[in-house]
Write a structure and sequence with these properties.
With 247 residues, the chain is of the alpha/beta class. It has helices spanning 41-45, 67-80, 103-113, 153-158, 168-183, 235-243; strands spanning 12-14, 52-60, 86-94, 122-130, 141-145, 148-152, 216-218. The structure holds zinc ion (2 copies).
């Protein structure tokens, strides 16, 4: 009789960074917001065309982002983006779906509920937090257009807040800041690299395992002290953003 050794490998959860171009998601009423991920990188970073940033977050069910996550996002963007007119973040509920969601369903819901669009000198970004799982269990969120991000709130809750793992605020902040990094054109996704640091086998990610833009996130180590850890952008990623109009 064979002996089977079961090894638990639950400590890496993957970010997915789908490119929206293949599946042509629903067309939004505002042509600016229908572009590919990274196309607004310099607009988000510099004040040349847009001096203010409006972020509309809509959540389903119990998956409202924690106020500490909103504060973390605000501090992150204020440290990177030149927006003298300010960065405004709002969060409101939308109807729950409890459904399995894929890119096209998320894009359809965005079209139904999103009300914030780029206008004048204010650039708008949309973030949806769902109560449904992605079709792939290992995906916690994705950016899918130049100003569109989806977070799988239920998955984030399910993979945080346990002993030896990340707190919910840390995991939410990590996924949100990572996906926003793609909207800012990282890595080599609309913001040119100053020094080569793209982890090409994993798409538009950073080779530095400690960088926010690394392709995977460590949600459990069993070690003390991890619960409040949120990776930061490394010097290569920051240099790219600065050269493309960021602070
Ligand atoms: Zn990514
Ligand atoms: Zn990096």
């Amino acid at each position: 009789m064979k002996r089977i050794l079961l090894v638990s490998c639950v400590w890496l959860f993957l970010f997915s960074c789908k490119k929206a171009s293949n599946t042509s998601p629903e067309t939004l009423p505002d042509s600016y917001s229908n572009q590919a991920i990274g196309k607004s990188a310099s607009d988000l970073l510099s004040a040349t065309k847009y001096t203010a940033l409006q972020i509309q977050i809509q959540y389903m069910g119990a998956y409202q982002l924690d106020t500490a996550t909103i504060s973390n996002l605000s501090a992150y963007l204020n440290s990177i983006c030149n927006k003298p007119g300010g960065i405004t973040i709002t969060q409101t509920p939308i109807a729950a779906t409890s459904d399995t969601l894929n890119l096209s369903k998320v894009a359809m819901l965005e079209k139904q509920y999103r009300t914030a669009y780029t206008s004048g000198t204010t650039l708008a970004v949309y973030i949806m937090v769902t109560d449904g799982f992605d079709t792939s269990a290992s995906i916690l969120g994705f950016a899918y257009r130049n100003t569109s991000i989806c977070l799988f709130g239920k998955d984030i809750f399910a993979n945080s807040g346990t002993s030896g793992g990340l707190s919910r605020v840390s995991l939410e902040s990590n996924v949100l800041e990572h996906e926003f990094g793609h909207l800012l054109g990282l890595v080599n996704l609309g913001t040119p690299m100053i020094t080569a640091h793209q982890d090409t086998p994993h798409g538009n990610h950073c080779t530095n395992t400690h960088c926010l833009m690394y392709w995977a996130i460590q949600t459990r180590t069993g070690l003390p002290g991890i619960s409040n850890y949120i990776p930061k952008l490394d010097s290569n990623c920051l240099a790219d953003l600065t050269a493309n109009g960021g602070k």
